[in-house]
Amino acid sequence: MLGFGSTRRGRGVECKINMYFLGAIILSVIFTLVVKHLATKFSIVDRPTMPRKKHKKAMPLLGGVAIWAAFWVVTAILVFGTDLVGKNLSLAKLFWVFIGSTILIIVGVLDDKFSLNPKLRLVFTAFAVLVALAGGVGIEKITNPFGGIWYLDFWQIGLGALGTILVFADIIVFLWILGMTYTTKILDGLDGLTTGISAIGALMIFFIASGTRWHQADVALVALVFAGACLGFLLFNFNPAKIFLGESGSLFLGYMLGVLSVISGGKFATALLVMAVPILDLGYVIVARLHAGKAIAAGDRSHLHFRLVDASWSQRRTVLFLYAIAILFGLTTLFFQSQEKIIILLALVALTLVFERVVTAWKK
């Protein structure tokens, strides 16, 4: 699958890859049990105190800590114990992504416990993204869907021994990762929704990076480990959930999806098509709130997944439906070229807008 061929060595490498994927799942399960106990013990729980929250009792948070720990433990084993990582993913780059994700986890845990000011949370989230950029997560060019390459290095600021800032490229990457981070945060409204779609996104990046066209075996392997960490937690997070992601998890998942899509060669289309419905729904809700004179950050049940549940769909049916859409449009990135992806994305925009209207009328 990762392009190692059918030799005995290739089969041995694929066996190791399966082992690390399984290891991420198992560690995620173990860490989830641990953090579930700690969250309950220290009363870091989500209580159904607002009308938009439908769970019946206090639910332990901190699920993101389990995913974060499982992912980075297995990644550390890969980096320091094997030669499978290093060609496209340097140790320095992974180190700074680790630091950035750790900042998000700490901020998320504090937010779960003490309910931080949203502006303060945004500042630290933006700082975590800047840490990743400073560590080398970035792009120099992107594929022109109509042919050729768009180079993004035309605006540079030299910093001597510290390197060079590609201003325009870094702005794009910063907004992309920050946007993905907050998309998964807002998506986290139903049991297993954010976790499952994040796993789907990571698997799509794995399949693309492991193909013969791009062949980034180490990026593919890290994406697969991330998917495994998500799937291990999903066993406890799928409806009826026994533990929630919490702010740490909802921020961390989007952050890693954004980072993985960048380091895999700017696979924005892959993540965008997997996350298209949540992103489009976010835009739809923002416009609707502005039109109604409401605050953009107002918490309510106006998002698509909430409205489907309020229109008599079960949580499981809604989540599985959104999984199916993410898989369907994610698979298009494996078989279609750039121009075709744009057509598919435009069609998805139109279908989502129509579906939003239908769901709204159906709910009424």
Give, in spatial order, the strands making up the sheet with the most strands: 1-2
Helix fraction bin = 55-70%
Terminal CA distance reads 48 Å
Rg over CA atoms: 20 Å
What general outline do the C-alpha atoms trace?
globular
Task: Please give the count of helices.
Answer: 13
* Global mean pLDDT: 85
SSE-based structural type = mainly alpha
Largest sheet: 2 strands, antiparallel
Strand content: under 5%
Spell out the helices and strands N to C. HEEHHHEEEEHHHHHHHHH
Walk me through the structure.
With 364 residues, the chain is mainly alpha-helical. It contains 13 helices and six strands. A two-stranded antiparallel ribbon has the order 1-2. Strands 3-4 form a two-stranded antiparallel sheet. Strands 5-6 form a two-stranded antiparallel sheet. The chain is globular and about 55 Å long.
What is shown here, in short?
The protein has 364 residues and is mainly alpha-helical. The chain is 68% helix and 4% strand.
List the helices and strands and how they pair.
Blueprint: H1 8-41, E1 45-46, E2 59-60, H2 63-81, H3 91-114, H4 118-134, E3 141-143, E4 149-151, E5 156-158, E6 164-166, H5 167-187, H6 193-209, H7 217-237, H8 246-263, H9 268-274, H10 276-291, H11 304-310, H12 315-335, H13 338-363
Antiparallel strand pairs: 1-2, 3-4, 5-6
Task: Pick out its properties.
364 residues, two-stranded antiparallel sheet, two-stranded antiparallel ribbon
